[in-house]
Amino acid sequence: MSFEKNIRTVVPYTPGEQPQRRVIKLNTNESPYAPSPKVAEVLHSFDADSLRRYPQPDCHVLTEALAAYHHVEEDQVFVGVGSDDVLSMCFLTFFAGEKPILFPDITYSFYEVWAAVYRIPFIKVPLTDQFELRPEDYRRENGGIVFANPNAPTGKAMSLTGVEQIIKENPDSVVIVDEAYVDFGGESALPLISRYDNLLVTRTMSKARALAGMRIGYALGSKKLIRYLNDVKFSVNSYTMNAPSLAVGVASLEDERYFRETTAKTIATREWTKEQLKKLGFFFPDSQTNFIFASRPGTSAERLFEQLKQRDIYVRYFRQPVLDQYLRITIGTQQEMETLIRELETLLKKNF
Ligand code: PMP
């Protein structure tokens, strides 16, 4: 058909399954705990009449709360509909040159999709065979750099020294550090934003704050970068965040104790799960996140994935070279992980 030549065609990102039935859901790195009770309070008392009005286009209530929380100024904060929205806006804003941007060959697969949809040339920089990112590999001409730290789906974190080396050696590029999982481990690059105006750090409330369904993400960086981001955002869609999301984001930040307690529980369960998986013959990069990327020599990850699914345990399986030898297992409650380990034990005895 003739109109098709004018259509932008891309291979889209494939999100993990969201089954409607109640299953043990360990496939999209969500929190197994409810959000803070303060979030429930805000939602219950939300004034529906106020929805007649547009939400704040600059997301002021939330940028103000985030600035206070992270000890930065309000014009160093940018808020979006999950960090996917924030990152996509960053790609559109900061990667508009002709030189290829750089990101690891094994990382969040959305980076490649945004590069494709915005027509940004890119080079995938190989990780080592231990899934390590080598800062010196980013010492080459580029139009920008993005990486997740800790990385996904490997779960591995790079030292702050390594992150700083990349930023320092690329003063002419914007460097985006995607810290979706930093609440669970690794070192944040946030202390560096006051020293490097080419650094942008992105965060999410979807994981440790248990708000994936609300869609709240944000970026922190120099005032200059945040201004450029806002200019593009206001040129695409000025009302991104809805009013309930803004209120919920603020409420979550007000309950630091709950955030710390639930995060600590997830970390403790992760460490327990690592031990159990080791005993069952799995190996994995040392995870600093709320998931474990595990493989077992001689065992088909795909079969294991299917068999677990039949038992209503959903983990993530990626059908692509190297990754297809692994299962990415989100850390659920202690009880859920005990069930998983029991089922794995039974399956490995019987079928593999
Ligand atoms: N970055 C990484 C590395 C992720 O794994 C995810 C979650 N899929 C995101 C960003 C996006 O998270 P959200 O849009 O829910 O904030």
From TrEMBL:
UniProt GO molecular function: histidinol-phosphate transaminase activity; pyridoxal phosphate binding
Single GO BP term: L-histidine biosynthetic process
InterPro entries (alphabetical): Aminotrans_II_pyridoxalP_BS, Aminotransferase_I/II_large, HisP_aminotrans, HistidinolP_aminotransfase, PyrdxlP-dep_Trfase, PyrdxlP-dep_Trfase_major, PyrdxlP-dep_Trfase_small
UniProt family annotation: Belongs to the class-II pyridoxal-phosphate-dependent aminotransferase family. Histidinol-phosphate aminotransferase subfamily.
Assembly and interaction partners: Homodimer.
EC number: 2.6.1.9
Cofactor(s) the protein requires to work: pyridoxal 5'-phosphate
S-adenosyl-L-methionine in keyword set: no
Organism: Selenomonas montiformis
Keywords assigned: Amino-acid biosynthesis, Aminotransferase, Histidine biosynthesis, Pyridoxal phosphate, Transferase
Domain Aminotransferase class I/classII large: 22-343
Reaction catalysed by this enzyme: L-histidinol phosphate + 2-oxoglutarate = 3-(imidazol-4-yl)-2-oxopropyl phosphate + L-glutamate
Modified residues (N6-(pyridoxal phosphate)lysine): K207
Name of the protein in its database record: Histidinol-phosphate aminotransferase
Pathway: Amino-acid biosynthesis; L-histidine biosynthesis; L-histidine from 5-phospho-alpha-D-ribose 1-diphosphate: step 7/9
UniProt cross-references to PROSITE patterns, sorted A to Z: AA_TRANSFER_CLASS_2
CDD domains: AAT_like
